[in-house]
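In this supplementary section we document a worked example of the pipeline. Step one takes a protein sequence of length 213 as its only input; no multiple sequence alignment statistics are reported here. Step two produces a three-dimensional model, which step three serialises into structure tokens for compact storage. The input and output of this example are shown verbatim.
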Amino acid sequence: MAKLILVRHIKSQWNEENRFTGWMDVPLDENETYKAKELADKVFQSKIDRIYTSPLFRNKDTVARMFEYGNKKYPIFIHLDGGKMQKWGHYIDISQEDVPVFVSEALNERYYGKLQGENKESAAEKYGEEKLHLWRRSWQEAPPGGESLKGVYNRVVPFYQKYIEKDLKEGRNVLIVASHNSLRALVKHIENISDKDIINLEIPYAGIKEYNF
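The serialised model returned by step three reads:
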């Protein structure tokens, strides 16, 4: 049996400021980083063989901070974009004291287009709360110049099927640390959530979902 653990990153500075972050690279909220220990205490109860994350700093930093607690191994970050996935073993030596952390833009947060950097309350006043909710949580609605959840799904799920499913089938325990909408897209696929019902799925900051395969 293999285990898949999904973790949403620790709250970022822009999350605290109630701003749309998307692909903007912002640091974690230092007042929330204590949650790294809580995550480590839960996640490292299982042996983690491989980790996948995105290049966004809030995701990578969440991984790194988790390894400060309760795990004697070290995360080795390996950037996969550019065709190196199939040959990663030729690029870096992974010892038994390390855990490979594969990094890919496929796991990035939704691109929020013109909303990136904007305060969510201001955006609600400008566009209306109902429209804003559809842009943020529905299946096909996309913010101005941005990406729908369907668009996120169409890059996240093929990546998962090509690489992560292979690890699970080979009995490896996998941890994915990513952003809200990339994880929502993946949960939709795993749990077969309908296009209509996905609007109701929320994963809190530093939230965890576990699956056994």
